[in-house]
Specification:
Blueprint: E1 2-4, H1 11-26, E2 34-36, E3 43-47, E4 53-58, E5 60-69, H2 85-93, E6 103-105, H3 116-125, E7 130-134, H4 135-142, E8 155-159, E9 169-171, E10 174-180, E11 196-205, E12 208-214, H5 229-234, E13 237-243, H6 252-259, E14 262-268, H7 276-279, E15 292-294, E16 297-299
Parallel strand pairs: 1-8, 5-6, 6-7, 7-8, 12-13, 13-14
Antiparallel strand pairs: 2-5, 3-4, 3-15, 4-5, 9-10, 10-11, 11-12, 12-16
Helix pairs in contact: 2-3
Length: about 300
C-alpha cells in the first residue's frame, strides 16, 4: 500500500485497508491487542541499540500493543554499537523481548537504520508483522533477492515531501501518523534522504492516551517544522525519541515543549563512546540495550 500527501481523498480507503490488514495480521497472531494485568504504565520504550527501540503501550481493559522502530541495521561507521548475532536472531525470530510485535517502523533508508537482509528475514519469519516505511526503504528492499511479492500485502509505503504529514491510520488499535522533515545535515548533506517521524498513539484509559514520536535522524532546525505546526499542536506527545545531537540545541526545551509539543524526550543514536555533553548533562538517553523510559499518558 502506498501513501502519498495530501491524502484527503485517499484517507477513508487507507483507514479501511490498513485497519483490515491489522485485523488480518492480528487474528491469532502478535498484532492482536490482548488484555494484560493493569500495572499502571501507559507505555514503555526500551532501547535496542543505536536508534532502535521496542515500545509497549496500553494495559488494563484496552489491551496493549508492541512495535519496533529501526531495530535492524548493518552499518556502524566505526562509531556506533554493533548488534550481536544473538540480538539479530532474537529480533528476526520474534524471541523475547521482541515477541508479539504488531509492526516494524523504519524511519529512513540509511544502513545504520535499515538492514535489508535481516528485515526481509524478519518478514519471512513472522508472517503477521506489518512493515511501515518511506518508499525509499521499499525501493531498497525490492532490490534484494529475498523480497517477496506477498510482503507487499503487509507493507505500507509512505511517500511525503518535507513539511508534509500523512493522514492517520490504524494498526492493532494504535493510531499511526507520520511526517517528513530533513535529515540532519541539511542542506549540505543527505538532501535526497526521506526521513520520517512516526507518531503513534494507543488508548491509556480514562480519556488518556500513550503517544510516542520517533524522529529518525531529524535535523533540529525549527524552520523545518513551521509548516507542521498545526499537525504537531493537534496532539500532545508523551515521549519524543530524538537523535542525540538535538540535545546540543540551546533552546532544546522550547523545541521539545513548544515545537514538538512533547512532554519528555529520550535521545538515541548515541555513539559507542558517549559524548561528554550527554554524560555531563541531565537529559535521558539510551546507550545500552535494555534501558527503559516510561511513555507518559497525555489527556485528550
Amino acid at each position: 500500500m502506498a501513501i502519498e500527501a495530501p491524502l484527503s481523498r485517499l484517507a477513508p480507503l487507507m483507514l479501511f485497508a490498513v485497519a483490515l490488514a491489522a485485523c488480518d495480521a492480528g487474528a491469532g497472531g502478535p498484532a492482536e491487542s490482548v488484555a494484560r494485568p493493569d500495572d499502571g504504565r501507559a507505555g514503555t520504550a526500551t532501547s535496542i541499540l543505536n536508534a532502535g527501540i521496542v515500545t509497549e503501550m496500553g494495559g488494563g481493559q484496552q489491551g496493549f500493543v508492541k512495535f519496533l522502530f529501526d531495530p535492524l541495521y548493518d552499518e556502524h561507521y566505526g562509531t556506533l554499537e554493533v548488534l550481536t548475532p544473538e540480538m539479530i536472531e532474537a529480533i528476526v525470530s520474534g524471541a523475547p523481548p521482541y515477541d508479539g510485535v504488531a509492526a516494524v517502523f523504519i524511519t529512513h533508508a540509511h544502513g545504520d537504520h535499515l538492514s535489508e537482509k535481516h528485515t526481509i528475514r524478519l518478514m519471512e519469519a513472522q508472517p503477521d508483522v506489518l512493515l511501515i516505511a518511506p518508499e525509499q526503504v521499499f525501493e531498497a528492499l525490492r532490490k534484494e533477492p529475498g523480497w517477496r511479492e506477498s510482503f507487499e500485502e503487509r507493507s505500507t509505503s509512505i511517500a511525503l515531501t518535507n513539511g508534509k504529514a500523512s493522514a492517520p491510520f490504524v494498526i492493532a488499535g494504535a493510531t499511526v501518523e507520520a511526517f517528513q522533515s530533513p535529515h540532519n545535515g541539511w542542506p549540505e548533506r543527505h538532501t535526497h534522504i526521506d526521513n520520517l517521524t512516526f507518531r503513534v498513539a494507543f488508548p491509556a484509559g480514562e480519556g488518556r492516551t500513550a503517544r510516542i514520536m520517533h524522529m529518525g535522524d531529524a535535523d533540529p532546525d525549527p524552520q523545518h517544522f513551521a509548516e507542521l505546526e498545526g499537525f504537531l499542536k493537534a496532539s500532545r506527545t508523551g515521549l519524543a525519541v530524538v537523535p542525540f545531537w538535538q540535545y546540543r540545541e540551546e533552546e532544546f526545551d522550547a523545541l521539545l515543549d513548544v515545537t514538538f509539543n512533547a512532554q519528555k524526550a529520550v535521545a538515541v543514536h548515541v555513539p559507542a563512546k558517549t559524548p561528554a555533553f550527554l554524560e555531563e548533562g541531565s537529559r535521558p538517553y539510551f546507550s545500552e540495550a535494555g534501558e527503559e523510559q516510561a511513555i507518559p499518558s497525555v489527556e485528550e
